[in-house]
Automatic annotation (TrEMBL):
<dbReference type="GO" id="GO:0003723">
    <property type="term" value="F:RNA binding"/>
</dbReference>
<dbReference type="InterPro" id="IPR035979">
    <property type="entry name" value="RBD_domain_sf"/>
</dbReference>
<feature type="domain" description="RRM">
    <location>
        <begin position="225"/>
        <end position="297"/>
    </location>
</feature>
<keyword id="KW-0539">Nucleus</keyword>
<dbReference type="InterPro" id="IPR036397">
    <property type="entry name" value="RNaseH_sf"/>
</dbReference>
<dbReference type="InterPro" id="IPR012677">
    <property type="entry name" value="Nucleotide-bd_a/b_plait_sf"/>
</dbReference>
<feature type="domain" description="RRM">
    <location>
        <begin position="326"/>
        <end position="401"/>
    </location>
</feature>
<comment type="similarity">
    <text>Belongs to the ESRP family.</text>
</comment>
<protein>
    <submittedName>
        <fullName>Epithelial splicing regulatory protein 2</fullName>
    </submittedName>
</protein>
<keyword id="KW-0508">mRNA splicing</keyword>
<keyword id="KW-0694">RNA-binding</keyword>
<keyword id="KW-0507">mRNA processing</keyword>
<dbReference type="InterPro" id="IPR050666">
    <property type="entry name" value="ESRP"/>
</dbReference>
<feature type="domain" description="RRM">
    <location>
        <begin position="450"/>
        <end position="525"/>
    </location>
</feature>
<dbReference type="GO" id="GO:0008380">
    <property type="term" value="P:RNA splicing"/>
</dbReference>
<dbReference type="InterPro" id="IPR000504">
    <property type="entry name" value="RRM_dom"/>
</dbReference>
<keyword id="KW-0677">Repeat</keyword>
Length: 710
């Protein structure tokens, strides 16, 4: 606007719900607008205007009825918000013209009317607000500049400010007129001696959200960050900015959170320009985005940097092009080139700067992941690109989604930090304890010495289950905790635990049933090993009884173990191996026929810690049970031979060694490819045909001559 000091328009509004300090906190609509012009040069005032606004719902709160004395019948006869705003603009413009003024600025008693009511409601109703509603004067802040001893800005009210400068309040019966008249009296008093105040500080509302990159070295104030939860999975940063319309979000201040599979989890971290805007954002807790209500909580700067921060120069250069629309492509063929992607998008969706507007996501060794990010100069080009969602490139369909700068950082950070081959942490000191010489297979039976946990939080780990069971943890059998995963490898919310006796299982089921774990109650039932085996092998257990498992890979493997020859109490770290799970129905192995002396097992003190291998950040760990690594001292010719005979009698030779399971092999991978992968390790070259095999589930087995820590 040409000049902000010519004229002020004192602006007041009331909603159908909470007013005053809680204005806008309940998403209720505007029902009343009152305004009056103040000429700052001539110290003159214009005509006092008051108009009602028709809401979509005429349900008035008791506070509103008491303060405004309005009725639903009066509001039904009023004009809708769009018409009222047009009347306001025309009325003010005509009056300014008669005064010989050309510009004006709104003056409000606090920012809530503009930021928390007018802009959010206009956004929901798809109304385009005039330019005058993007700049305003906050009377409380201006008064605090004149009278700093009057108290903190947040504690100031219109009545307290009038009392401080000894001005009697106006007596007016109608709501709205009273507040506007008192505001005008206060402004006129500040313009003259002894204050001679000049209104020079103007609040602004951002027209749109600006995307941008964030560095991990950047300082982020924790008092400016919130966490929004319950977002629709397809929502973009612009959708989130629209939800917080009226509040100023920092540049690049929206970070959509991803889950372990690299997909959006319905949460986002939002960074505002200051703590005042953050506090107003917290007042939008459980406001709605479409038909969903959004939860808003406090967050920290560290959390924001963990999601949105990045250090890659390649990403920084890619995101340096500001005000671009970012689209994420997923499922690209690994052989796809930039020219293939540009050809797929077509001339109707030109990419910004051609190939420089493409960013392929790769593993640390340079292998493509099938993901890419694309920049478009405008919304129209992005919309044209999104129309190609699930169209075919090569022999694969491609998914396209809206994305954000923070998501680019997050995806790149996750992939680039993924190790090529996962490694196990160094094992803690081993302690010896006597156990049975036979490994812990699941033996079926009707004895009800097991419990089933149902309704576990999906993020629950073994440690959470142990904490849930409390003092009953000591009654769990070694390797007796079994998490159940679905066919996608994700937690199903179920777990089975083998107890030392049926009495202990009954006691746990009685004491822990419907006990809380992470804000959810967990059901605990007593069951038998037969029922447990049915579920672990892919069957179902419900009120109708047992349903046999399908003939496919079990959702959860039986317990695994590593067989060793007799060793000292301290085993080398190189012996810490994961063995492949049994693919056949669990059975009890033959007892060793020699040396009746009790065998010793070497356990880690963390007996039930979850130690599943995580191959990449994006794919769930192989569903392996138990979740511990333990060492069994057993003669190589007994247990090891029995296990080898059960697992793959036609593939594995009956000799001591270690098994390495390989998942995710290319379908066209051959023996040479697998042996090349293990280059540097010792294996028997004369036994290529017998050392490497592929199971009916597509897994390859290899028998090296030495222990491999992969």
């Amino acid at each position: 606007m040409a000049s902000h000091s010519d004229t002020l328009v004192v602006f007041f509004g009331a909603t159908a719900g909470a007013n005053g300090g809680k204005l806008g906190s309940d998403e209720r609509e505007l029902i009343l607008l009152v305004w009056q012009i103040v000429d700052l040069h001539e110290n003159k005032v214009g005509q006092l205007q008051r108009t009602l606004v028709q809401p979509d719902s005429a349900d008035l709160s008791e506070q509103c009825k008491e303060e405004t004395e309005l009725t639903a019948e009066e509001l039904c006869k009023a004009e809708p918000l769009e018409s009222v705003l047009q009347q306001f603009h025309q009325s003010v413009s005509a009056e300014l013209k008669s005064l010989g003024r050309s510009s004006y600025t709104l003056c409000v008693d606090g920012p809530l009317l503009i930021r928390q009511v007018l802009h959010p409601e206009a956004s929901k109703k798809n109304l385009v607000l005039p330019e005058c509603f993007y700049t305003f004067v906050d009377l409380k802040k201006e008064f605090h500049k004149c009278c700093p001893n009057a108290g903190p800005v947040n504690d100031l009210t219109l009545t307290s400010m009038l009392d401080y400068v000894c001005i009697p309040a106006a007596v007016e019966q109608e709501a709205g007129l009273r507040e506007v008249k008192n505001t005008v009296l206060l402004i006129l008093h500040l313009l003259v001696e002894p204050y001679n105040h000049k209104f020079s500080t103007f609040e602004t509302v951002n027209y749109k959200f600006e995307s941008g990159a964030c560095s991990k070295t950047e300082a982020v104030d924790s008092e400016t960050v919130i966490r929004a939860r319950g977002l629709p999975w397809q929502s973009s940063d612009q959708d989130i900015a629209r939800f917080f319309k009226g509040l100023n979000i920092a540049k690049g201040g929206v970070a959509l959170c991803l889950n372990a599979q690299g997909r959006r989890n319905g949460e986002a971290l939002v960074r505002f320009i200051n703590s005042e805007h953050r506090d107003m954002a917290l007042d939008r807790h459980k406001h709605h985005m479409g038909n969903r209500y959004i939860e808003v909580y406090k967050a920290t700067g560290e959390e924001f940097l963990k999601i949105a921060g990045g250090t890659s120069n390649e990403v920084a250069q890619f995101l340096s092009k500001e005000n671009q629309v970012i689209i994420r492509m997923r499922g690209l063929p690994f052989t796809a080139s930039p020219q293939d992607v540009l050809g797929f998008l077509g001339p109707e969706s030109p990419v910004t700067d051609g190939m420089e507007g493409l960013l392929f996501v790769k593993y640390p060794d340079g292998r493509p992941t099938g993901d890419a990010f694309v920049l478009f100069a405008c919304e129209e080009y992005a919309q044209n690109a999104l129309k190609k969602h699930k169209q075919i490139l090569g022999k694969r369909y491609i998914e396209l989604f809206r994305s954000t700068a923070a998501e680019v950082q997050q995806v790149l950070n996750r992939y680039m930090s993924t190790p090529l081959i996962s490694t196990l942490p160094p094992p803690p000191p081993m302690v010896s304890m006597p156990v049975l010489a036979t490994p812990p297979f699941i033996t079926t039976g009707s004895t009800r010495d097991c419990i089933r946990l149902r309704g576990l939080p999906y993020i629950a780990a073994i440690e959470d289950i142990l904490e849930f069971m409390g003092e009953h943890t000591i009654d769990i059998r070694p390797h007796g905790v079994h998490m159940v995963f679905n066919q996608q490898g994700r937690p199903s919310g179920d777990a089975f635990i083998q107890m030392k006796s049926a009495d202990r299982a009954f006691m746990v089921a009685q004491k822990c049933h419907k006990k809380m774990m992470k804000d959810r109650y967990v059901e605990v039932f007593q069951c038998s090993t037969e029922e447990m085996s049915f579920v672990l092998m892919g069957g179902t257990l419900n009120r109708s009884g047992l349903s046999p498992p399908p003939c496919k890979l079990p959702c959860l493997s039986p317990p695994t173990y590593a067989a060793f020859s007799a060793t000292p109490a301290m085993l080398p770290a190189e012996a810490a191996l994961y063995q492949p799970p049994l693919l056949a129905t669990p059975r009890t192995p033959q007892a060793p026929a020699h040396n009746p002396a009790p065998a010793l097992a070497y356990y880690s003190p963390q007996l039930y810690m979850n130690m599943n291998m995580s191959y990449t950040t994006y794919y769930p760990s192989p569903p392996v049970s138990p979740s511990t690594v333990s060492y069994f001292a057993a003669p190589p010719g007994s247990v090891a031979a029995a296990v080898a005979a059960q697992q793959a009698p036609s593939i594995l030779p009956p000799q001591p060694g270690a098994l390495v399971r390989m998942q995710g092999l290319p379908y066209n991978a051959g023996v040479k490819d697998i042996l090349s992968f293990f280059q540097g390790y010792q294996y028997a070259p004369e036994d290529y045909s017998s050392l490497v095999g592929v199971s009916d589930q597509g897994r390859s087995l290899i028998q090296p001559k030495e222990w491999l820590c992969l």
